[in-house]
Inverse folding.
């Protein structure tokens, strides 16, 4: 659906919910000892409510960019994860999907009258299956992701099922500095209004996308957090590769939003449609934190 339309600048954003996902409650937020996290995730009997799995299409006057592909309806097939046995065992115990064939990104683009071949780039915030599974609907697409994320996904990364990615994909990999707490190492090469920024924590190679429309920033945050209140409360998601990096990333985003009016758009937040429709930015009370330096 079209959720952001600035007729003066020509910037439009479509949000597609590619089904729903439920995760173990400690997966969304962990409060215990980090070393016990994975066993606790597997053992927990508690599941979250169904959450959306957002994919975003950004239309600029001279470019179309898809941010994450969402999950594929084929995830419902019993043997979908069979080629990656470690992922099969863990994923079936940590994540549940509810997605109909009509909710795949290919079908939704078609209904919106958007030709997938006219999309210039697909950006993956990270390689987890609910963000990259829809690549099967986009053969031949140019995919942008961080080099660190790509390298880990080709070896083994919990939640990534790269064996299912189409063979006809051209990858464009971006490198970030090891430490980028203020986004000084952002990649601005794709378009003057788009920046790729390093946001590790959920995975080591996680990136986010900043779309600048005049003075307003739309911050496509992938799985930095599950929702905006988690960012405001500095509450670490349970499924984080590094708690230290996750906390630093949340601080960097809060610092950025202190200086730039920012609409925060994580991938599983039910409130993003309202937030975009109302142009609702992060408030000062949600982000105030002193760093002594101004982010880019």
């Amino acid at each position: 659906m079209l959720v952001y339309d600035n007729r003066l600048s020509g910037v439009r954003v479509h949000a597609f919910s590619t089904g729903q996902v439920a995760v173990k409650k400690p997966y969304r937020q962990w409060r215990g000892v980090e070393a016990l996290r994975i066993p606790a995730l597997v053992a927990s009997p508690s599941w979250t409510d169904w959450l959306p799995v957002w994919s975003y299409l950004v239309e600029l006057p001279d470019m179309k960019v898809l941010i994450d592909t969402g999950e594929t309806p084929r995830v419902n097939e019993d043997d979908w994860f069979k080629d990656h046995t470690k992922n099969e065992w863990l994923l079936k115990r940590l994540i549940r999907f509810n997605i109909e064939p009509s909710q795949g990104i290919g079908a939704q683009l078609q209904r919106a009258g958007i030709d997938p071949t006219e999309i210039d780039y697909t950006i993956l915030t990270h390689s987890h299956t609910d963000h990259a599974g829809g690549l099967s609907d986009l053969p031949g697409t140019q995919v942008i992701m961080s080099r660190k994320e790509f390298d880990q996904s080709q070896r083994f990364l919990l939640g990534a099922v790269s064996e299912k990615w189409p063979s006809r994909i051209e990858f464009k990999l971006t490198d970030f500095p090891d430490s980028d707490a203020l986004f000084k190492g952002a990649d601005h090469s794709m378009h003057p209004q788009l920046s790729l920024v390093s946001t590790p924590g959920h995975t080591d190679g996680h990136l986010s996308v900043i779309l600048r429309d005049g003075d307003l920033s739309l911050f496509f945050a992938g799985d930095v957090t599950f929702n905006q209140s988690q960012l405001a409360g500095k509450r670490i998601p349970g499924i984080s590769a590094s708690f230290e990096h996750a906390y630093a990333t949340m601080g960097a985003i809060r610092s950025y939003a202190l200086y730039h009016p920012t609409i925060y758009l994580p991938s599983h937040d039910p409130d993003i449609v309202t937030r975009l429709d109302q142009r609702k930015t992060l408030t000062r009370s949600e982000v105030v934190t002193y760093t002594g330096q101004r982010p880019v």
Notes: The CA atoms of residues 140 and 168 lie 5 Å apart. The first helix runs from residue 25 to 28. The mean pLDDT is 88.
